[in-house]
Amino acid sequence: MRPEVEGAKRVVVKVGSSSLTDSKGQLDLARVAQFARELAALHDRGVRVVLVTSGAIAAALGPLGLRRRPRDLETQQAAAAVGQGLLVRAYSDAFAEHGVHVAQLLLTVEDVLRPKTYRNALNTISRLFRLGVVPIVNENDTVATHEIRFGDNDRLAALIAHLVRADALLLMSDVDGLYTAHPETPGASRIDRVDDISALEVDTSRVGSKVGTGGMRTKLLAADIATQAGVSVVLGNADDLGKALAGEDVGTFFPARRKRRPRRLLWLAFAAEPRGFLEVDEGAERALLSRHASLLAAGVREVRGTFAEGEPVEILGAGGRTIGRGFVGYSSADLTLELGRSNAEAGHRSLRPAVHRDHMMLTE
Ligand SMILES: Nc1ncnc2c1ncn2[C@@H]1O[C@H](COP(=O)(O)OP(=O)(O)O)[C@@H](O)[C@H]1O
Ligand SMILES: N[C@@H](CCC(=O)OP(=O)(O)O)C(=O)O
C-alpha cells in the first residue's frame, strides 16, 4: 500500500487522450463515466480533486470527419476548440449523475508559473474547492504557441499539482506503468518504483499511442517536476484509477522528494525558453557539478545570445553538453565585457557571479 496516496488530502489526476478514446479515436463516454464516478466518490470523502484532462482534439475527430489526429499546429488548435466544449459537456453530464458540479479551466504553462497569473489561477481553484466544485483543466491550445506550449498535459498537470500543493499526482494512461523499454519490446518489464529519476536507464524514444502526445518522455519529465515539488506520483493504466486512488500497488510509483523547489526554479528548469548560452570551462563545470558552486564570470568561456540581467540562460559544459540553467547575473553585453577584463587583468575577479547557485538548476 502507498500511504502517501491513500491518505492524500489533495489529488491531481491527469487522464490522457489514449485512455479517453475508443478504437475509432472517438471520445469514449463509458470512460468519462468511469472517471466521473471514481473522482466523485473521492470528492465525497472530502478529498480535493483537480482533473487535468486531454481529449479535446480526440473528441473533435468524429465531428470534423478527420481520420487521424492532425499534425499541424493550426488544425490541432482548431480541433481542440471544437472538441473542448464536447469534452467538458460529457464530463459535466457524467459528474452531474453523482450530484457534483465541475468547472472548466483552460491554462497555459506560463499561467501557472508567472507570479502575476499563478496567484489568480490558485485563487480560482481554491474558491472552487470551497464551493465543492471539481476543477477540470486542459491546456489552452488556442493561445499556447510553439514557444510556450507543452502539447501534452503531463507537465501542465505536474505544475498544477505544485500550484495547489497536492499530495499526489496520478498520471493515467493506456499503459500499466513505466517499462524498461517500449512495452512491445521483447523482454521489456514494468518498473514498480522509481526513487531517482536521473538514475533511470529506460528507453522512452518511441512515441506513444496514436492519439496521445509525448509518450513516456513527457510523463517522466512530469514525474520529475512533481517529485521535486514534493508531490508523489503514480503512473499507471486508467483502468486502475480506483485502485491507484486507494493507494494500492498498481503502476509505477515515484515518491515525493523531501525538499520542495521554489516555483521560479521549476519554471527555469522546465518551462523557460533560454535567452542565451554560457559555455563554461572544465574547472567551473567541476565546481558546479560537485559542489553546486555559483558560476563565476572567470569560469565562462563563451557567451552566446542576447539577454538582459536576470533572464534564463542555459549552461553548457566543456563538451557542449547542457549541465543546467540559471538566471544570469549580467546582461550579455556586460558579461562579455567582464570576460574580456578577467582575461586581460590577471587575478581580476568580479564579486558578482555570472549565475548565483540559488538561481541555478542543474540537469542532474
Ligand atoms: N518505456 C516505456 N514504458 C511505457 N510506455 C511507453 C514507453 N515508451 C513508450 N511508451 C508508450 O507511451 C504511451 C503513452 O503515452 P501517450 O500516448 O502520450 O499517452 P497519453 O495520451 O495517456 O498521455 C504508451 O501507450 C506506450 O506505448
Ligand atoms: N490539449 C490537448 C492535449 C493533447 C494530448 O494529446 O495530450 P496527452 O493525451 O496527454 O498526451 C487535447 O485536449 O487534445
UniProtKB/TrEMBL annotation:
Molecular function via GO: ATP binding; glutamate 5-kinase activity; RNA binding
Pfam families xrefs: AA_kinase (PF00696), PUA (PF01472)
PUA domain: residues covered: 276-355
Subcellular location field: Cytoplasm
Pathway: Amino-acid biosynthesis; L-proline biosynthesis; L-glutamate 5-semialdehyde from L-glutamate: step 1/2
Catalysed conversion reaction: L-glutamate + ATP = L-glutamyl 5-phosphate + ADP
Ranges in a coiled coil: none
GO cellular component, one term: cytosol
PROSITE patterns: GLUTAMATE_5_KINASE (PS00902), PUA (PS50890)
GO-annotated biological processes: L-proline biosynthetic process
Residues binding substrate, per UniProt: 54, 141, 153
Name of the molecule in the record: Glutamate 5-kinase
UniProt keyword annotations, A-Z: Amino-acid biosynthesis, ATP-binding, Cytoplasm, Kinase, Nucleotide-binding, Proline biosynthesis, Transferase
Main location: cytoplasm
Record EC number: 2.7.2.11
Binding-site residues, ATP: 14, 173-174, 213-219
Broad EC category: transferase
HAMAP family per UniProt: ProB
Gene name tied to this protein: proB
Protein role: Catalyzes the transfer of a phosphate group to glutamate to form L-glutamate 5-phosphate.
Matches recorded under NCBIfam families: proB
Homology family: Belongs to the glutamate 5-kinase family.
Amino-acid biosynthesis listed as a keyword: yes
Organism phylogeny: Bacteria, Bacillati, Actinomycetota, Actinomycetes, Propionibacteriales
